[in-house]
Amino acid sequence: MSDVATSDPIKPVFVDYQATTPCLPEVVEAMLPFFTERFHNPQSDHPSGEEAMDAVEEARRDVAALIGAASPREIIFTSGATESNNWALRGIAGSPRRRGRHFVTSQIEHFSVTQPMKSLEQQGFEVTYVAVDADGVVDPASVAGALRDDTALVSMIHASNEIGVIEPLAEVGRICRDAGAPFHVDASNTVGTIPFDVRSINADLVTVSPHLFYGPKGVGALYCRRGVRVAPLLEGGVQEDGRRAGTENVPAIVGFGRACAIAAREMEARMGHLIPLRDALLDGVRDLEGVRVTGHLTQRLPNHVSCVVDHVESESLLLALAMGPAIFAASGTACSGREQKRSPVLEAIGIGAGLDSGSLVFGLGIDTTAEDVARILRELPKAIAQLRALSPLA
Ligand code: PMP
């Protein structure tokens, strides 16, 4: 019998953690004093200001340590991944030391990379969009083939929020470094979730997003390797060594630092918990008729399962899952909104309009259980069957 038949409201299975995660209690606890008694401005020339600055610097060290930065000075706090991505691209485009007017990126980037790329194209820059294979994997040789003497920046997503695939960026980074082309990595979904080291990836710029690993929203970082020059996006203040103006969001920065310290400590255990759950869900989903897993099966985020469902619309399926068995999942990206019907990422892996309407993403979290996965695998086929029975296409 379905859980839905009981009269008591059932506890929702929340599997939308790739959209965002809750702050850990330890993170909130670290942040709280900075809203009230420790509210001071880090730029103030008195001991309380200095204490606030000390807290910001401690967080900077924690972020630097998590990604293997050579110095905390290479970490610049921003308002989040969207700003960091915009800044990396526009900051290189506006840098006096820019190599040329050519950019390279992939066909499966987040909109916070593709939209600024489009704006740059309108300003006369040239962009090469490197293709991916049917699993969503970029071939480093294609990046090598796209590089030119006037390539100003290569920008690549490390792992896709939409199809979970992890890209072979160590190789891409080596190719870029050898060619002298600066390399930006959008590591929003990987830093804090899987091991990440700027040195082994040869990254020059890296986007970091703590709300995807149990830290706060509205804060992020751009790692900027020593010697790499980016023009400022926000001007009019001395903060962040004059590189990013605006009074620091001290509570969020402190929470960010704490989330990094916890991630460093707990990453292995989290992955050990998530990977068997992910694989059980992947295996179950793959067995369903007319359902295809998107993204590489093994080279993928430990917390990510995605698929497309033939002859069913995402919106209807998500609603059926939410209203019936209280399973809260997602379709592709939280950031593309309802108006974005066709997914460029799914198109890039060769999935056309008919199938792409039924795309689903299950983002697992540290409190996801085997029972949650079992409930999804029990209820998903029922929801699909019900909707297909109503569909004129099926
Ligand atoms: N890049 C990637 C790969 C993402 O998944 C996201 C959204 N989580 C972003 C950038 C933008 O993040 P935010 O909306 O937190 O700024």
Write the layout of secondary structure elements.
Blueprint: E1 13-14, H1 25-31, H2 47-67, E2 75-78, H3 81-93, E3 102-106, H4 111-122, E4 126-130, H5 140-146, E5 151-157, H6 169-179, E6 183-186, H7 198-201, E7 205-208, E8 220-224, H8 239-242, H9 250-286, E9 291-293, E10 304-309, H10 314-323, E11 327-328, H11 344-348, H12 353-356, E12 359-363, H13 370-390
Parallel strand pairs: 1-11, 3-4, 3-5, 5-6, 6-7
Antiparallel strand pairs: 2-8, 7-8, 9-10, 10-12
What does the model show?
This protein is an alpha/beta fold and 394 residues long. The protein has 13 helices and twelve strands. It has helices at 25-31, 47-67, 81-93, 111-122, 140-146, 169-179, 198-201, 239-242, 250-286, 314-323, 344-348, 353-356, 370-390, and strands at residues 13-14, 75-78, 102-106, 126-130, 151-157, 183-186, 205-208, 220-224, 291-293, 304-309, 327-328, 359-363. A seven-stranded mixed beta sheet has the order 2-8-7-6-5-3-4, sandwiched between helices. It has a three-stranded antiparallel beta sheet with strand order 9-10-12. Strand 6 (183-186), helix 7 (198-201) and strand 7 (205-208) form a beta-alpha-beta unit. Helix 3 runs parallel beside helix 4 (111-122) and helix 10 crosses helix 13.
